[in-house]
């Protein structure tokens, strides 16, 4: 049941959203979508295999749609947050035997030394929606304070 719920929210919900908005964007011959995935999709995350699989599906789906709809001047990009100080993270930490210790571990693991804030994501989303990103599509941006940087 938990897997079904994760899949319905994180994969099926995303498919339905795209179905709802793409037709109008194609008719207008313009649009921009910024999907929110997770760095769990890029690098894996212990204990979150189904969640990571759903978010990985969002990455590949977004890249494919970006390729297919570029001829309609529709740009589709993805933000992959790392640990961010939201209600979702609070739910994860509250389920731990020592919530504060888990929160501190997340913070220590991030090279910039702090949890992400919702505003960090908002700025990245605003960039992808701006004219400054008018020639960017099919890209994935990690917003993780350096947690998942790779060469």
In short:
It contains 6 helices and 3 strands; from the N terminus they run αβααβαααβ. With 151 residues, it is mainly alpha-helical. The chain is globular.
Index terms:
mainly alpha, single chain, 151 residues, three-stranded parallel sheet
Count of alpha/pi helices: 6
Output the strand order for the largest sheet: 1-2-3
| Residues in helix, % | 55-70%
Number of strands: 3
Q: Tell me the strand percentage band.
A: 5-15%
Q: Average pLDDT, to the nearest integer?
A: 93
Instruction: Using the alpha-carbon principal axes, give the shape.
Output: globular
Given as residue ranges, the uncertain stretches (5+ residues, pLDDT < 50) are none
In whole angstroms, how far apart are the ends?
A: 38 Å
Alpha-carbon Rg, integer: 16 Å
Major sheet size, sense and barrel closure = 3 strands, parallel
Q: Name the structural class.
A: mainly alpha
What's the helix-strand series? HEHHEHHHE
Describe the structure.
With 151 residues, the chain is mainly alpha-helical. The protein is 56% helix and 12% strand. It contains six helices and three strands. It has helices at 2-28, 39-43, 49-69, 87-94, 99-109, 118-129, and strands at 31-36, 74-81, 140-143. Strands 1-2-3 form a three-stranded parallel sheet, with helices on both faces. Helix 1 runs parallel beside helix 3. The longest helix is centred in the N-terminal third of the chain and has 27 residues, at 2-28. The radius of gyration is 16 Å and the shape is globular. It starts with a helix and ends in an 8-residue tail after the last strand. The model has no long low-confidence stretch (mean pLDDT 93).
């Amino acid at each position: 049941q938990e897997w079904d719920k994760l899949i319905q929210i994180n994969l099926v919900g995303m498919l339905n959203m795209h179905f709802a908005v793409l037709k109008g964007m194609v008719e207008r011959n313009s649009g921009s979508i910024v999907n929110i995935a997770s760095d769990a999709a890029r690098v894996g995350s212990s204990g979150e295999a189904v969640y990571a699989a759903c978010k990985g599906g969002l990455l590949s789906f977004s890249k494919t749609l970006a390729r297919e709809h570029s001829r309609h001047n529709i740009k589709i990009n993805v933000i992959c947050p790392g640990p961010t100080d939201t209600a979702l993270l609070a739910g994860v930490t509250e389920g731990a035997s020592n919530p504060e210790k888990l929160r501190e571990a997340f913070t220590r693991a991030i090279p910039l030394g702090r949890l992400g804030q919702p505003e960090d994501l908002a700025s990245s989303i605003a960039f992808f929606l701006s004219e400054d990103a008018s020639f960017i599509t099919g890209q994935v941006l990690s917003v993780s304070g350096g947690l998942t940087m790779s060469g």
